[in-house]
Amino acid sequence: MELTIAQKLDALLKLQSLDSQLDELIKIRGGLPEEVRDLEDDIAGFETRIGKFQAEIKTLEEEIERNRVAKKDAEKLITKYKDQQMNVRNNREFDAISKEIELQSLEIELVEKRANEAQFRVRGKEEEIKTTSAALNERKEDLKAKKQELDQITSESQEEEKEIIKQRDEQATTIEPRLLNSYKKIRGNALNGLAVVMVKRGACGGCFNVVPPQRQADIKDKKKIIVCEHCGRIFADVEGVPEPAPTGRGR
Ligand SMILES: [Zn+2]
């Protein structure tokens, strides 16, 4: 049985409405997986940085330990030299040992200075770890919330999505293949996913270009399928009474 143009347009409009509902569901869900991935990337980056700081601290602590041992050795030598000084036979020997003691004292000063510098850098790294950890924890909290949101939206919308897809597929069978193909093609090219639109306030509901009054009258007549001359979308009907649009805000 051949459908009238009005029936065909009605079927197309129903299909469009179901497809738009699906688009909306996917849009709501859409941004979240990407946000979750971004957060996971951030977290991995922060963890790498913290690991690097910890490795640097370990190296610095080894340096501090080496300096501590060097200081102990120098102190032992000084004690030994001071003992030797008690038993010198002449001033020359005494002076020579004094020089050694002086050298070891300088060595102690040097290793203490190095240890202090290393200690200072350790504190800097610890500070960086603190800041990075705070940012890391913040991201982890965000991630937890986003994941929960995503799970909830996904499970909620999956049932709904299945139901709409079922209705959409049924609806599609009521439309002749040639018309359905045009519909799919127009929809594929439209950024907002609209292939079938109404004339609203004298303008195309898809691209907002003005539709002349005579054309609006033809669309209302539904003797044939009329598409927008600007964007190619199919006009289903005119909302309200056909009226001239004073301004078009179209492209
Ligand atoms: Zn248009």
UniProtKB/TrEMBL annotation:
It comes from Spirosoma fluviale. It comes from the Bacteria. The lineage of its organism: Bacteria, Pseudomonadati, Bacteroidota, Cytophagia, Cytophagales. Residues 145-169 are annotated as: Disordered. PANTHER family: PHOSPHOLIPASE C-BETA-2-RELATED, SCAVENGER RECEPTOR CLASS A MEMBER 3. This is C4-type zinc ribbon domain-containing protein. Signal peptide: none annotated. Gene3D superfamilies: 1.10.287.1490. Residues 203-234 form the C4-type zinc ribbon domain.
